[in-house]
Amino acid sequence: MDYGYTEHSHRHISIVSKRAGDILQELGYPERTVELARIAGYLHDIGNCVNRTDHAHSGAILAYEILKDMGMPVEERTEIMMAIGNHDEQTGTAVNDISAAVILADKSDVHRERVRNTNLSTFDIHDRVNHAVTNAELKIDSETRKIILNLKIDTNLCPVLDYFEIFMDRTMMSKYAAKFLKIWFELVINDTKLL
Questions:
Q1: CA distances from 42 to 4, 141, 147 (A)
Q2: Domain count, the chain
Q3: Would you say residue 2 lies in a domain?
Q4: How far apart are the C-alpha atoms of 93 and 100, rounded to whole Å?
Q5: Whole domain around residue 27: which residue ranges?
Q6: How do residues 93-127 score in pLDDT, each as one tens digit?
Q7: Quick count: other Cβ atoms within 10 Å of Cβ 57?
Q8: CATH of residue 69
Q9: Which residue has the higher pLDDT, 5 or 53?
């Protein structure tokens, strides 16, 4: 599922699955809700097997049908469907706790390991920004009710401003997803708090 875009395979979905569950677990959600967030995170990009365009919506329908065939109760598969259908920054927003966790987990996976293009001379801005991120940590602090995305960007490869050029919509989506969970989203780049 990497048709010229950043990596959306097992590495990415495993990270999103774990982080989505960890967010809700750290915030004290019931274990079943945590498990549903992990399932939604694991399936969130399944729509890419149909087409990158509108992958959130086609993925929501695919996941719903798969989970139905597996016997999952309608209430649970609907929650997962809503999370998957709302994770894309062009068409989605946090509509339930699971969707908020999936959004935060998905948008926090910025890293050079996601770059599929191996030719530096042909990097587009997405390749450059992702390649420049040498470390991305998502920290959840339940006591202060904060979720912190801490990035290390090699500014020799890409200026920090380029990050905002392509990730501003994702950053704002993360901010609103955190607000949905009644926590505060912070963005720290190279030890400087920016949001």
A1: 21, 23, 21
A2: 1
A3: no
A4: 8
A5: 10-193
A6: 999 999 999 999 999 988 767 566 667 777 777 78
A7: 18
A8: 1.10.3210
A9: 53
At 31, phi and psi to the nearest 5? -60, -35
Rounded to whole angstroms, how far apart are CA atoms 101 and 21?
7
| Bridge partners, residue 187, by sequence | 149
CB neighbour list of residue 40: distance below 8 Å, 6 or more residues apart: 20, 63, 79, 80, 83, 84, 98, 99, 101, 102
- Reported as type and span, the H/E element at residue 24 is helix 10-26
Backbone angles phi, psi at 50, to 5 degrees: -90, -55
In a domain, 1, yes or no: no
Instruction: Say if residues 188 and 148 touch (Cβ distance below 8 Å).
Output: yes
Q: Answer whether 43's CB lies under 8 Å from 162's CB.
A: no
Tell whether 148 is covered by a domain.
Answer: yes
Confidence grade of residue 191 (pLDDT, cut at 50, 70, 90):
very high
Judge whether 5 lies within some domain.
no
For residue 72, is pLDDT > 60? yes
